[in-house]
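During the reporting period the student researcher (J.K.) took over the structure-prediction task from the postdoctoral fellow and processed the backlog of single-chain submissions. One of the processed entries is reproduced below for the supervisory committee.
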Amino acid sequence: MDRHHTIRYILRKDLDIQKWDRCISASTNGLPYAYAAHLDYMSKNWDALVLNDYEAVMPLTYNKKYGIHYLYQPAFTAQLGVFGNNLSATLIKAFVAAVPKKFRLIEIELNQHNDAAELTGATLRNNYVLDLNKPYDTITGLYRDNIKRNIKKAQQANNRYATNIAVEEVIALSRSQMQSISNLTETDYDNFAKLFHQLQPQGKALACGVYTTANQLIASCVYFITNNRACYIMVGNHPNGRTAGASHYLIDRFIHDHSNQHLLLDFEGSDIRNLAFFYGSFGATLETYPSLRINRLPALIRWLK
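J.K. obtained the following structure tokens:
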């Protein structure tokens, strides 16, 4: 039977979660966001498309508004799409074609191994990643001078780097930093905290921070770590840290602690020029992924949207 003809739509309640997570774990493109726990906490609802016996899978994260079902990208979920091995452009197209017609609007991010060559409605977005499987001195040799200067500034101020800090501290800073420029809700942050506390004992989540000598947290972040990939998933910076080199030092310390490991640091972006320059200044390289937009809404509703 043709591989493309065995894609089934399965409701969340009917999924075999052990097989699901096993598929994500064994996938060449597995990401923290694709595991069932992440989807359960961060998505309002989700079902899935499954190829054969969980040979490849695609989560369908959805919501409903005005009686219309639509696929959307959940909070703190940079990429989703199709997960598996040997994913051809034709197979990606088959998965997208198998999305049930009840989802009248599709606005989702696929992942770096989803070839969008045969898709209509896909554009490429930018991400930066840094291979940590090298000696620390080799990695820092590729830092731009502005990164080195800021790290030195943070060290001269005797700022302190700490790991395994309370995630609530990071969330508080992130919330105050993002409240005027994002659509994140209290529920999003609460669910993120619950997910973090489930993942941390498994070694899959880490909260880090930089403190002043007065013990003020001025830069912080959370990493989700699976599939040899550490995703820089949440950032919380205090205005006082901007001129202190705190965020530069924060990232550098993670790189220091995880150098010579089979690990990719995923900066989760960015299409924003200044952020792209910042991440690239650590020697990170560009990696693109498709963003998919398909509008099946009736003409009048499409116009109103």
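The committee noted the following: The chain has two domains: 3-125+289-304, 133-262.
J.K. will present the remaining backlog at the next meeting.
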